[in-house]
Amino acid sequence: MSGPERTLRAASAIVGVADAASPTGELDLHGRALEAAMVKEALDDAGLELSDVDGVCHAESSMAVAEYLGVHPRFTESTMTGGSSFEVHVEHAAAAIAAGLCEVVVGVYAATPRSDRTQGRPSRRRLPAGPNPAAEWEWPFGLRMPMGPYAMAASRHMARFGTTSEQLAQIAVSTREWASRNPRARYQSPLSVKEVLDSPLQCAPLHLLDCCLVTDGAGAFVLTSAARAKDLARPPVYVLGAATAHDHMMISQMPDLCVTPGAVCGPRAFAMAGIAPADVDVLMGYDSFTITALLHLEDLGFCAKGEGGPFVEDGKTGPGGSLPMNTNGGGLSYTHPGMYGMFLLVEAVRQLRGECGPRQVDGAEIAVAHGSGMVLSCMSTTVLGTEATLG
Amino acid sequence: MISSPRPVEPPVGEASAPFWEATRAKRLVVQWCTACERPIFYPREVCPVCLGSSLEWRDSQGRGRIDAFTVEHRPQPSFADEPYVIALVDLADGVRMMTNIVGCRPEEVRVGMEVVVSWEPLTDGRNLAVFGPAPETRAGGAR
Prior knowledge:
The structure holds 2 protein chains of 2 kinds.
Chain A: E1 12-20, H1 31-46, E2 55-57, H2 62-69, E3 75-77, H3 85-98, E4 104-111, H4 113-118, H5 133-137, H6 147-161, H7 165-179, H8 193-198, E5 203-204, E6 217-225, H9 226-229, E7 237-246, H10 262-273, E8 282-285, H11 290-299, H12 308-313, H13 330-334, H14 341-353, E9 366-373, E10 378-385
Parallel strand pairs in A: 2-3, 2-4, 8-9
Antiparallel strand pairs in A: 1-6, 1-7, 4-6, 7-10, 9-10
Helix pairs in contact in A: 7-11
Chain B: H1 17-23, E1 29-33, E2 38-40, E3 55-59, E4 63-72, E5 84-91, E6 96-101, E7 114-121, E8 127-133, H2 135-138
């Protein structure tokens, strides 16, 4: 293969990661202190120092976090696409490193919605400033955010393809099986399809257990050039492909509720990496809701459009299955602080380094982190690979 | 029932004053680009296809089909006292809008169901477009 999209392949590598989550759903630290702890842990993991950092990514303000850390970066990145922000940051940082703009980039995220509530800290959630079409054309109708839009997508998928609540529930069940192997997961006890279906309907057709958690969580990654990555503390995890696409902001503007922009960026990222879906050993597919993960499976090409329900039915995304998905327990059972994409990257890297203990996927060489932002609005796909995939 | 008045009433956006003025007479209007000969929703200052500004307002047929919906089973007490339906309706005019489905029980609502506009008063004299089952649907008729 050739072409300009090929240029990011293996130009950079993730060399350090960190994340924080707890079975209690709460963390002791919050705010910048939590972010700083994550940056320190990820740099230690890489064997790098703060003084090595010349690029900073943060989904709210790379300037504010860089100031707090005392970093004076020459690459700064604050793209905010919701939960997929971190995959976008990796893409942009990989491009910047490939172009020689910078060499060591740190991305960081922390949010503590659960302890903010129990500790009575002010919520960081803000309404968007300025004219807002949603206030005029969506908010008056009482659609709960973000669950309502996903429920609409599920209703459309069910009507068009015959997808069932049992099939969606199986995604939650298979994900919980992974969570039972992660001692830091919020929920670790086994789950049945019946329990999902018996959990209270929220926005029909979604039940409570079709929905992600609300927990504290934080994470960080360190990305550097392939050349510099060779001599650091851990085996490099190379960025083989990266692509992003968005096609709406509000759910009422989504062109087709059954097809996410992942159908655009997924194949682009795979093409850049030179891989096919069958080459993927671990899929970290953003699971804000069960329907979200199902749509990724179709849009990334693991099954045909409309066949996601039958595809997941036999539990093949769980432990021992042919497509290990969300091996940390996902947003459904591990942690979900609001923008979960950071945890997709961290787990993908750990799987490729063979560090995942009882949930390790044997011989994992290629992992995909597929982020989803806002209301199925912005997808970003990162294809990661070990040294062995570079040949 | 959904509360009246609603806790959230829509503001009038920069480009949508004619839309809201028409609702005072219970008329549903849709913005069109006269260059592209395409409907536009939500209203804008320019056409999202050609960026041209030769736009006009045309009466909607006021009927459409449900593309997707959800039933909110845990309403905010300020919004409603029982489960209610939020839907995306594809108008016959060629645009999609969010709305509530009223005039039938939530369990009767289906994707693909034909619906017609009805109006719910806002506090300032404007009306909010909501939709209910089309009469012929109830009679089991065609269209």
